[in-house]
Amino acid sequence: MVTPVARREAAAHLHQVYGVSQRRACQAIGADRSSVRYRCRRPEDGLLRSRLREIAAVRRRFGYRRLYILLRRDGIMLNHKKLRRIYAEERLQVRRRGGRKRALGSRAPLALPQGPNQRWSMGFLHDQLSDGRRFRILAIVDDFTRECLALVADTSLSGLRVGRELDAIVAEPGKPAVCVSDNGTELTSTAILRWSQESRVEWHTTSRLANRSRMRLSRASTVVCVTSC
Questions:
Q1: Average pLDDT over residues 140-148
Q2: Residue 96 belongs to some domain of the structure
Q3: In a domain, 149, yes or no
Q4: Who has greater pLDDT, 111 or 171?
């Protein structure tokens, strides 16, 4: 009997079954009377727990830190330590990946864009220089116009850098309604999640980009590179 809950249950059992007083029951199990008499005065968190389960059901790979950002967007203000406790009590911990990958739930197909700036697809292209150093290229494409909006090349492209590049693009043609990307670490980071929440842009993550989107990225980047050369 380590936890106060277990000690309260043991004291109640001795009092009900053997008819001993609460004082003697506490002396027998080595518990303090104040902890046995304690009654929880925490407010009801039914709405918070239900909303947390709803978001976790949609964002299956999000931990409590990312869910904390989404709850604050809905106007639910709470301490991150309290959220972590409720998150653990609801058993919403993200399981480690391993073994054969299986699809979770039903996957809704993406609606086809009917105009510009409705859906942007983005991904990374990889190459290396003549001296062997590798670099990456962030390609952003409008799925309706098939226009390559940006090609950003660098040896390192973090989530913060991607957010800054998106801000630079949004300043001219406007922001999209949906962004589609794969589940790479840069595109699923907290920085990107915060950018999507502040910009009010829905972010759709897939296991990998569709073949059509990959072909558009490669074709657009090739045309732009050839034209610039």
A1: 89
A2: no
A3: yes
A4: 171
